[in-house]
Amino acid sequence: MRKAQGSWEKRILKSLNSMCTELSIPLARKRPVGEQKELLNKWNEMGTDEPDLSLFRPVYAPKDFLEVLINLRNPNYENGDSLSFRTHLGLIQVPLKVKDIPELKEFFVELGLTTGQLGIDDSTQVPPELFENEHVRIGQKVLAEQDSAAAQQYIRQGSPTALRAELWALILNISSQPEDILYYEQLKTNVIQHDLLVDSLIYKDVKLTASNDDYYFVFEDYLYQVLLCFSRDTSVLGHFAYNSASPPKSYIRGKLGLEEYAVFYPPNGVIPFHGFSMYVAPLCFLYHEPSKLYQIFREMYVRFFFRLHSISSHPSGIVSLCLLFETLLQTYLPQLFYHLREIGAQPLRISFKWMVRAFSGYLATDQLLLLWDRILGYNSLEILAVLAAAVFAFRAVNLMEVTSLAAAEAVLADLSTLKVMPLLQIFLFATVT
Amino acid sequence: MSRPKNQNYKGHGLSKGKEREQRASIRFKTTLMNTLMDVLRHRPGWVEVKDEGEWDFYWCDVSWLRENFDHTYMDEHVRISHFRNHYELTRKNYMVKNLKRFRKQLEREAGKLEAAKCDFFPKTFEMPCEYHLFVEEFRKNPGITWIMKPVARSQGKGIFLFRRLKDIMDWRKDARSSDDQKDEIPVENYVAQRYIENPYLIGGRKFDLRVYVLVMSYIPLRAWLYRDGFARFSNTRFTLSSIDDQYVHLTNVAVQKTSPDYHPKKGCKWMLQRFRQYLASKHGPEAVETLFSDMDNIFVKSLQSVQKVIISDKHCFELYGYDILIDQTLKPWLLEVNASPSLTASSQEDYELKTCLLEDTLHVVDMEARLTGREKRVGGFDLMWNDGPVSREEGPPDLSGMGNFVANTHLVGCFLNLKRPWIGTPGWLSWLSSCLRLRS
């Protein structure tokens, strides 16, 4: 796995370097004073800038990454020539251990049919006395006690809208201390003083994705403020200790290969890809103060999101998630799975982008936040794979009738009306297995 | 015919049971070529009438109304989409006059507290007749910003901001001296209004809310509130330092469309539901409830203030577009009321909203004589006022004034489930899951 990750990283870095040479733009340069002043003035409205980004391309898109994952093979594993019913017919060919439905039911026990949930039991048909009022009261108590572990347990049943911002901060252990605000201001100064090539990539990504979104366009400026600072934050390098990836290195001009002149590029070691800004966009709904928004995003990234674009064997890593998704589908919806495979529409090709983005930009925001509540509560991203399978199960009837990949994509193009909690509950607890 | 359980409940006056005949087909006429035309054409049993043919239903524009209403005979069943003198509500100078008068009346009858409920309109002065009053107010508040608006224009035309009396002196001089500007509005038809300098901002941008109110009659006053609407954002970041920048301050889509930053794909609109969720996550659900009930108050009081002035012809109904601005203390302000809110869709979502809005409007107008007259909700419309407040609860209206009166409005208070759940939609799924839960 590490080898695969290593070669993937080489590819990305090569792409970045070639773009750099092609466009003759340095990876980093110091801004002249006039430009610094201008940027400082415009800090709150960077979205109004319209730099010429036509020559920039995103370094990679999720589908490129998928191709890499599909080609992963374990050299020690002997698959055997005969096809048995146990053969995995999906795209991922790495035999990692994933949970099956009984294990998932145990793991996600709080999502069961007899337990109250926000996202289901707070709908208007259900009187609030049955669940919602009590749940809100407990939430307030948890916050008053500032009990992080209790908050994590509590949020498995969903967070009330008014309490969510504080609960997430409690679970992620974010408290806005003066040092944190100062740290953010320092990052901001770094942005003002130096211009990085990666900045243009970030701009381009925001313009292509979040700015075009019907709801997130409003937060465009916040996205720049967070992402530009993020790429300069060297404390993020700390997460590489438990990440199979390693940060890309670059060398000072003329000193290629000399380790003393190696620097991590970008400073935080994370090269953004197409859609990266969508990790931040939903958070703008909850946090309005830039330094707090920044901290929350950074913590979410180093705890969860990094696993979605690095190759590892971790159960929450993207490879396991893909395998979990395919296994669930193949085991519990075999007819659908075979049908889609026959028409050349491997399900993972459609659901991969949902999982890589943790469904951001695909679900309605309130539903997305309910989903991310559970990610925090269970400290695992496996729920993304379960949801992806549940979506396929939900639209199975329509999918059985399609005869091409394009038609299958069309059936699954619009997820904005879906309600995630009923889907998850029915898939896990109410389907006959 | 069975007797209604609650004899005191007044129907909303639409149907008289057997007396209203079922028409074989309904002949409609309209000059609008947008969402409205689509809705009318798709309505079963409705036939388009062209040119001089006789019609049963006319969605007219206000200029036609002005010229023809007075000498058009209409049968009892015929419906038309405007009230003869709607401008009492929709022209800014008349609305201000009516509101001021209503406020005085309330103060006399019910005291200062009740009258204060009418303070949702920023201080406004008609030009030029109230010029001196305006100058007095201006001098009492040095340094604040004022906005000058033409009374009868729409889409943001002719509006500008100012802080010094000198600015309007210059403007008056300019307007008078140029004779060849036939298009310019005479100075006499403007209002000067106190500009709300602390608007609520989202993402650093100013926005206003568009809400739809359907009035079926003024005497007695029967009004319906639509459950959805949208927030319109200005494309640029709000700052008081550039009052000349129209694009910063005016949130009409028409103005924003000409801004260099405008990207049609964005549409710069948020559906009200999204707006409500955003506010709730920032300020908590109670604050949001208060805001929306303050808005209810605006709708009702504004309609009451013109109730005695508007000619309440039984053939008329009107769909108003209310423009509301929220300030940083979460107080809603009434900017204006539109008699002809735009029915052109700016995006797919907008198209769906307007289609449902118009379909439901036609359901309430009820040319097909299907309603019983006792409905409190028709499609996305809630009966907000029926010659008195309408309670959400069933049973006799709470006349004592105490007890748990909850107004019958659901401005995005619950999920707007416009379509009945059929197999394969989310509504069906949650219904199914609740069934399963009950069983286990």
TrEMBL record, chain A:
What InterPro entries does the entry give? Rab-GAP-TBC_dom, Rab-GAP_TBC_sf, TBC1D19
Reading the lineage from the top rank, the first entry is: Eukaryota
Location of the Rab-GAP TBC domain? 158-379
Q: Per the record, a Pfam family? A: RabGAP-TBC
Name by which UniProt lists this protein? TBC1 domain family member 19 isoform X3
Task: Identify the species of origin.
Answer: Enhydra lutris kenyoni
* Phylogenetic placement of the source organism: Eukaryota, Metazoa, Chordata, Craniata, Vertebrata
Which gene underlies this protein?
LOC111148962
UniProtKB/TrEMBL annotation, chain B:
Q: What are the entry keywords?
A: ATP-binding, Ligase, Nucleotide-binding
Q: Which GO terms describe its molecular function?
A: ATP binding; tubulin binding; tubulin-glutamic acid ligase activity
Family under the similarity heading: Belongs to the tubulin--tyrosine ligase family.
PROSITE patterns in alphabetical order: TTL
Q: Supply the name of the protein.
A: Tubulin--tyrosine ligase-like protein 9
Name the encoding gene, please.
TTLL9
Pfam entry (one): TTL
Q: Name one GO biological process term.
A: microtubule cytoskeleton organization
Organism of derivation: Mustela putorius furo
Which Gene3D superfamilies does the entry link to?
ATP-grasp fold, B domain (3.30.470.20)
